[in-house]
Amino acid sequence: MMATDLSASIPAGHRPVPRWFARFAQRGLKLLAPVLPAHLLNWLHHAAWFVAIGSLNTLLGYLLFVGLLNGFELSRVLALLLAYVCMYVISFQTFSRWVFTGGGMGAFVRFAPSQALLYLCNQGLLELFVRASGWSEELCQFLLLPIVALLSYGFNRVLVFRTMVNK
Question: SS3 helix, strand, coil % of the chain, rounded to 5?
C-alpha cells in the first residue's frame, strides 16, 4: 500500500493546513487512501481543517446565542441575528487567515450577503425544527449546527473566497 502525501497539492482557494493538524488528520485519512483518489483525499484534508476552525467559530456563536436567549431573554430571531452580527468579523478573520485564500476587501464585502443568506437558512430551519419538534431553541439550534456548518463551507467556498477557486 502506497502512502499518500496530502500536502503535495493544495486545492485552489485553500491555505496550507498547519503541520500539527496535517499529522493528526493524516492518521484518519490513511484508512481512506486505498479507496479514494488523491484529489478527494486532499479536499477532505482541507474540509477537516475548515471544520476545526469552524467549530471554534460555531462554539463562540452558539454560546453567544444561548447567552442572548437566556441572559437577556431575547426572542430566538433576535438572539440568532445578534449572534451572527457579533460573529461576522471573527468568522471572516479566522476563515480568511487560516482556511481560505483571497480574503481581501472583495471577500469581506461578499461575506456579508453570504452570512445573511446563512442566517436566513439557519433561522428558517430553526423555526421549522422548533415548531415540528416542540423542543427548546437551544437544543434545536445545537442539532442544526452540522447542517449550518455544511452550508457555511459551501457559501464561503463558492460565494466568498472564490477568487482563487476558479483560477
Answer: 70, 0, 25
Work out the end-to-end distance of the chain between its first and last CA atoms, rounded to an integer number of angstroms: 33
| pLDDT, tens digit (0-9, with 9 covering 90-100), for 97-129 | 888 877 788 888 989 999 999 999 999 999 999
**Contacts for 163 with CB less than 8 Å, ≥ 6 apart:** 13, 101, 102, 104, 106, 107
Q: Tell whether pTM > 0.85.
A: no
Q: How far is CA 15 from CA 4, 43, 44, 104, in A?
A: 19, 12, 14, 14
So where are the chain's domains? 58-160
Q: Kindly state the cell numbers that stand for 112.
A: 456579508
Cβ pair 32, 41 in contact under 8 A: yes
- Report how far residue 89's alpha carbon sits from residue 28's, in angstroms, rounded to the nearest whole number: 32
